[in-house]
Write a structure and sequence with these properties.
Blueprint lengths: L5 H16 L11 H10 L9 H6 L5 E4 L5 E2 L10 E4 L4 H19 L1 H9 L5 H6 L7 H25 L4 H14 L1 H6 L6 H16 L3 H14 L4 H14 L1 H26 L21 H10 L5 H4 L4 H12 L4 H19 L19 H6 L1 H7 L2 H23 L1 H4 L25 H4 L3
Antiparallel strand pairs: 1-2, 1-3
Helix pairs in contact: 1-7, 2-4, 7-8, 7-10, 10-11, 11-12, 11-13, 12-13, 12-17, 14-17, 16-17, 16-19
Length: 446
Amino acid sequence: MNRPWLLPLAIFASVFLVYIISPIATPFDSRWTIHTALSLIHEHDSDLNEYLPLLEKDHFYAIECVLPSGERIFPIQSPCPGGRLSAIYPVAVPLLVAPAVAILEGGLKLSQPILRPLAASLPPGFRRSFLEGDLVGGSMPAELIIASAVVALAAVVIFCFARTLTNVPMAAFVALVFAFATPAWSTGSRALWMHGFSMVLLPAGLWCAWKERWLWAGVIFSLAFFVRPTNAVPLVLAGIWALWRNRRSAMQFIMGVLPPAAIFCTLNFLTYNSPLSPYVRLKGTAGVSLHGRLGEALAGNLFSPGRGLFIFSPVLLFSVFGIILWIRSREMRPVGLFVAATFVLHYVLMSCYSDWYGGHSYGPRYMSDLCGLLVLALIPAWPELSRAWRALACVALAASIFIHSQGAWCWPCVAWNSKPSEIASSPQRLWDWSDPPFLRGFKDPR
């Protein structure tokens, strides 16, 4: 009996299982995502005023105050009378995960007769709170579970897209390369960052564009933009692609863009009296500019031992060859040009960001959004490699899997950002080949 759903389900289950047993969680900037989702579910708004004691305890990290006039105060040091306290990041991620949070909360409550005795055997902490059904106190494992499901879903999307381009074994191979040899494992699945959703949406949008499903491509790329504003790059490029195809494709694409845009622009108007949230309009030292370290950022985002994409995922070097092969092919040229242009423009944009190394993160977090697109380019590359080059690619793949496993299993590797000194105050450490983050486990085996 033909069961086409069986292999995608197996890929999802296996990837999800590995992710949830990987112990490292990094709910840094994403720390208020579960709280915001709970507020949407129970309070029907995105305010976090009901969590004021927690916000104060965390010194209002990543929290802004929006006054009734729409004026935004950030950063803040104390409660803002009459204002709405909310996370500075786009509301799209909490909105998208709210159904999963509601299901998780309901499942934990129904399972209390089984889980409560187990929780009672644990010391006070986030694990105990989670098993007791408290998603506020247990937000860390809640993030880990949902983020793991999101990125496992991305692996399934990549498999299904790849299946239209190649055979089943190669499609499964590419999906697993994505899952374990890229920041999907060490970044996307470790917390409810915006990056995990980019990993799902960008390949899905490209798949729709390739199949001439321009209405759905517009919906997906529009949603991707409101999830993470840097996805304006693939949104615009997809629009150009649709227009290049013909006027009808362009109109379908625009019709797809409009519904997510209407929803999120309305939400932003109600909050900020503006169609776009302030997060989109970063300015000054925290924003995008031709800053004095641009050259370093351009080199570092690709080859720094602390953040370089091709250092942490050397297997993706072979994706460059695949993109070239796509561009040379008449049939796949639009896909190749789209992926190449998206990569180059996103790379330059992230390098223009003054905090190009992504603060406290493991590896190339700012470049991680694109790994779902880049692994697809392995499809044309792999068959064209000679035996020697394929052996080298296997070594690069093994190195990539090892490096990203360290981000999911090795706490000293993640703590590299603050030990022996804060990375923001000693950025020269980003180039220290004697102490790359992924080898910290050998120096500090705890």
